[in-house]
């Protein structure tokens, strides 16, 4: 393991620097000193400190650590699925240096003491930054708002009901009004539960062929359209946690053209998979929202390329065997993704769909901007949350070798290209690839 002495700086030199916050795409060096970025680019020798370690990163990419805005961790209540210890190890291995955790736990994160618990537990057992999102409504029941002010004071970074949508438009209106007045972020899962009903995959020919009940894409679009109207009414800051179809991309594009304070995300699964991947009822591909058809996947890729979609998330949702080893219709939704998100996203780069700057903007710089945190950048003075990546290195996804306690990856046995070699958080090395 590579270690940095407290009084010694580290120069990572000859690297391909990718920093969207500075529109930087160049060969150069990054100097890390006292846990911060001390210099970047073409650094003159006379500006280097006397006590210095050097790391030659020729042929490698150095970029800001990834910020994942949608991560489900089982702690408290479901530690057998995932703990902060296992989740943060998985994150570090995948180049994710900051997690935003969802409040879908037992108990639900809807009180100050529970926000404090998450922060303390993550600090004591984790190795990357963990920022808890608090529940938007008490008990995630969609009926009564939580105490935004107190929860924010306790450390909540945003407000969401996680896997659930707020069906009551009046409750959502009030939430967005409070969000406007208190300058907090509302993150919403956009699915109309009544239209979803007992559907289990995307509605269409594939669902019919498999004999499974479908979910129309309108379940997402109708909820998204409603929320856009409520944002227009209230002016509250709004983030659609993940969209999955071309119609939703169009809704977001139109709303942004009208100047609404909205942003949105898409999961890496919906950028790289489609409904055909379900194959013969493979439950690791059962997600919410469901995987759509290929045209919708391509529309989401275009949305990332042109900036309509702001962020890429892993939507990391660990499910143990007792919730996944069922007939497709009875299995729980969700897939893990912390360790594979970057490598899968690099498929888009290798295929020529997006640039490296665009990818890292969506996974690092833009999430930081939306959350209002001083991360996602390699600017001088910023915390040294840094990853070193070999974007051409091939590897095989072996579920049993993943750090997550749950193994429900849709990319098992997939051949990916791109590995994180080093992950630094605040200048501390938290991951080094072996071999």
Question: What features would you describe in this structure?
Answer:
The chain contains 13 helices and 19 strands. The longest helix has 17 residues, at 218-234. The protein is globular, with a radius of gyration of 21 Å. Helices cover 30% and strands 24% of the residues. The strands form four sheets. Strands 1, 2, 3, 4, 5, 17, 18 and 19 form an eight-stranded mixed β-sheet that branches. A six-stranded parallel β-sheet has the order 9-10-11-14-15-16. It has a three-stranded parallel β-sheet with strand order 6-7-8. With 435 residues, it is α/β, with parallel strands linked by helices.
Task: Identify the notable features of this structure and list them briefly.
435 residues; alpha/beta; 8-stranded mixed β-sheet; 13 helices; 30% helix; globular
- Globular, elongated, flat, extended or rod-shaped: what is the shape? globular
**Could you tell me the strand content as a percent range?**
15-25%
Largest sheet: 8 strands, mixed
Number of helices: 13
Count of β-strands: 19
Topology diagram in text:
Elements: E1 9-19, E2 24-33, E3 36-41, E4 52-56, E5 61-64, E6 66-71, H1 84-93, E7 96-101, H2 112-125, E8 129-132, E9 134-135, H3 148-154, E10 159-160, H4 169-182, E11 185-188, H5 193-196, E12 201-202, H6 205-210, E13 214-215, H7 218-234, E14 237-240, H8 246-257, E15 262-267, H9 268-272, H10 294-306, E16 311-313, H11 321-324, H12 341-350, H13 356-371, E17 386-396, E18 415-425, E19 428-432
């Amino acid at each position: 393991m590579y270690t940095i002495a407290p009084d010694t700086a580290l120069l990572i030199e000859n690297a391909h620097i990718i920093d969207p916050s500075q529109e930087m795409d160049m060969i150069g060096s990054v100097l890390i000193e006292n846990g911060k970025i001390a210099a970047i680019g073409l650094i003159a020798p006379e500006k280097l400190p006397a006590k210095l370690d050097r790391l030659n990163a020729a042929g490698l990419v150095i970029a800001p650590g990834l910020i994942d805005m949608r991560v489900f961790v089982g702690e408290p209540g479901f530690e057998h699925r995932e703990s902060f210890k296992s989740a943060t190890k998985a994150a570090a291995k995948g180049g994710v240096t900051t997690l935003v955790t969802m409040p879908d736990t037992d108990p639900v994160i809807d009180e100050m003491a529970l926000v404090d618990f998450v922060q303390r537990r993550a600090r004591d057992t984790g190795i990357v930054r963990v920022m808890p999102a608090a529940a938007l409504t008490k008990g995630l029941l969609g009926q009564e708002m939580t105490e935004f002010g107190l929860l924010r004071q306790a450390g909540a970074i945003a407000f969401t009901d996680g896997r659930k949508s707020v069906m009551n438009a009046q409750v959502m209106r009030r939430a967005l009004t409070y969000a406007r007045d208190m300058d907090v972020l509302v993150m919403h899962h956009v699915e109309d539960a009544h239209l979803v009903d007992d559907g289990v995959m995307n509605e269409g020919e594939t669902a019919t062929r498999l004999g499974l009940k479908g979910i129309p894409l309108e379940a997402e679009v109708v909820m998204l359209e409603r929320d856009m109207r409520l944002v227009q009414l209230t002016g509250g800051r709004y983030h659609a946690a993940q969209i999955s179809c071309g119609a939703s991309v169009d809704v977001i594009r139109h709303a942004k053209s009208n100047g609404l304070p909205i942003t949105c995300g898409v999961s890496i699964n919906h950028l790289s998979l489609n409904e055909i991947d379900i194959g013969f009822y493979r439950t690791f591909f059962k997600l919410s929202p469901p995987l759509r058809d290929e045209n919708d996947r391509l529309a989401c890729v275009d949305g990332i390329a042109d900036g309509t979609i702001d962020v890429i998330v892993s939507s990391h949702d660990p499910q143990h065997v007792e919730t996944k080893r069922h007939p497709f219709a009875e299995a729980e939704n969700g897939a893990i993704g912390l360790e594979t998100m970057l490598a899968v996203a690099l498929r888009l780069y290798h295929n020529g769909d997006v640039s490296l700057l665009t990818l890292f903007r969506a996974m690092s710089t833009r999430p930081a901007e939306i959350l209002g945190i001083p991360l996602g950048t390699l600017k001088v003075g910023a915390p040294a949350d840094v990853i070193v990546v070999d974007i051409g290195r091939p590897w095989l996804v072996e579920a049993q070798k993943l750090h997550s306690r749950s193994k429900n990856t849709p990319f098992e046995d997939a051949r990916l290209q791109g590995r994180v070699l080093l992950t630094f958080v605040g200048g501390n090395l938290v991951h080094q690839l072996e071999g």
